[in-house]
Amino acid sequence: MIEIISKTALSTVQDLGRHGSLRYGVGTSGAMDDLALATANLMLGNDIHAAGIEVQLFPFKVRFHQDCDFAITGADCSAQLDDRPLPPWWRTRARAGQTLIMTFPRSGCRAYLALRGGVNVPKVLGSRSTQLRGVFGGLEGRFLCQGDQLEAYASKDNKHFDFGIEAPSTVMPLAIDDHVAVRVIPAAEYDAFDTTAHASFWAQAWELTPQSNRYGFRFQGDPLKPRQPIEVRSHGIVPGVIQIPHGGQPIIQMKDAQPSGGYPKFGTVIDADLWRLSQLPIGKRVRFIETDYATALAAQQANHDYLSEVKRMTAILGIGLHADCLGDAQ
Amino acid sequence: MNIAHIRQIISWMTKAQLTHLELNQSSWSLRLQNEPIQKSTPPTLLAIPSEDEAAAYVTATGVGEFQPTHALREMPEVEEGTLIEEGTLVGYLKVGLLYQPLYATHAGHISAPLVPLGQPVDYGTPLFALYTAA
Asked: pTM of this prediction?
């Protein structure tokens, strides 16, 4: 059992998402930085689909009521287990009574806390992710709050592992002029914008505004105007879709995106790069790189290869798949 | 089975060009994996204090690249001359994506790193000297 002892808001239970329910109007949810959560799970010998805690506001404090192996990944939040500083992307064991503190990140903005065996909350529509709009999944479909207790697997063996994994941001860096970059495939209404708008979109660094959250990221820059006003009926959209509303400032749908929308679609951030975007702090800027489907598949493969290598490394250490893991690959 | 035996097995593996070896006994098991790495020169040791000067050393607990600073951070885990306690994290041995921690085995004032950053090191290579707390 672990207990949330900070008053921090905006933290939720997430796994890799609730896929296959868009036709019912249910969005995917899931960890914004899916690569970070999957890595944390592999470090613990969990199924990559096991649920963990996504932390978006700091400081975040939890107390362990039993011995528990855990891993922290994502943003480098200068974590401390009692007085002991923990490096980023680290696995260790907490003893009963110890407190983990995750503070304001030095880099990135979303941190993940995974527990050996996974966070035990009920599965709804094939996932343990919190569906905030529908108020289900996760812990009662809501943000975690002070006093919440989450069931965790008690570590009773003597296999105490203490190690880190190199973060994907250093293994697979992607930046232009010191700005994080993500790859984008032009979408259906791309040609409704003229070449000036196209050039402006690719050339400028877009600033992430405070009107951004798990539903969507709003950016600020030189407005993008279509050749003529566009009226599009609402249609299906997915995380990564870049919409251009009337004001000309892009919105990128994120993991809690609604399943339909009617703004013109300028492009789509490739799924393999959404983890990069999810770690962009408010006020920082991002560059977009035009890409194609083949490159998107190659990027997906690169992410897959990274996770395979993490799994191989943990196997070398002797960390096998946790027999009681609450993952249940879909 | 001790470290000398494991070293002998590793040398046999290298001669035989084996990439994997696993030994299982009732009370222990050993898994060795030979990663093809660039042939490196023997570790370059910077000025190592004599045994009279240093009370103890932090040595490599295995084979890997010595990293006093985490790739996501700008500062090393410990600054030269700092008085540290036993168990303090002083750096890492990096093997592929893996960061293995190096902890101080004694308390004391820590030296500058004794090997260059990124240097491949072998088991037992001295990495830091620890001086008796005055």
From this structure: 0.88
